[in-house]
Design brief:
By secondary structure, the protein is an all-alpha fold. It is built from 9 helices and no strands. The longest helix is centred in the C-terminal third of the chain and has 18 residues.
């Protein structure tokens, strides 16, 4: 798959938009064909590659979330290149509304099911997702608050972390009231 040009990958993505392509087949292609490209991305993604990602988002959003977005978010301990962060940010902005809370829940589970310290790029991506005001259940919101608190010391001087907390309060302020100390 690595030998394929971005144009060839786009053709495969467009072919996968056919109704007879299963989510399982799309997930396999995403894991083998798209994820390695994004993992190796250092600079901004080409328009062709990003169009490929958007095509998959339009027709196979859940497999793209599970096989590309979440694994890339946690690969290399959350360290993302500028190109990876930009591509993920644009994908989160295009993600169907119904999947946003699922994306946040999966992110909060952490790498291999173990929450770890957040990186600056991850914080920026969380802020992007929260700015879309996804519906968060009490458990997800509680976990988000616990992990934000756990990351407070490490990210104390981070403007991105401050923006994340501000966005959280603006978008889910009413839901935060039960979590305030009495």
């Amino acid at each position: 798959m690595a030998a394929l040009s971005d144009e060839a990958v786009l053709c495969v993505c467009q072919a996968s938009a056919q109704p007879d392509v299963s989510s399982r087949a799309a997930a396999a292609f995403i894991a083998l064909g798209l994820r390695p490209r994004l993992q190796q991305l250092e600079e901004a993604a080409s328009r062709t590659l990003f169009t490929s990602l958007l095509t998959m988002m339009q027709h196979h959003a859940r497999p793209l979330l599970e096989e590309l977005i979440v694994p890339i978010l946690w690969s290399a301990g959350g360290t993302l290149s500028t190109g990876q962060a930009e591509a993920l940010s644009r994908l989160i902005k295009e993600m169907p509304e119904a999947l946003l809370s699922n994306a946040l829940s999966q992110f909060l589970r952490g790498e291999d099911g173990q929450p770890t310290q957040w990186s600056e790029p991850q914080v920026a991506l969380l802020q992007t997702a929260l700015s879309r005001k996804p519906a968060l259940d009490a458990q997800c919101l509680g976990e988000l608050l616990v992990q934000a608190d756990a990351n407070c010391d490490a990210l104390r001087k981070s403007l991105k972390f401050s923006n994340l907390l501000n966005t959280l309060v603006r978008s889910h302020g009413v839901q935060l009231r039960p979590h305030l100390p009495a």
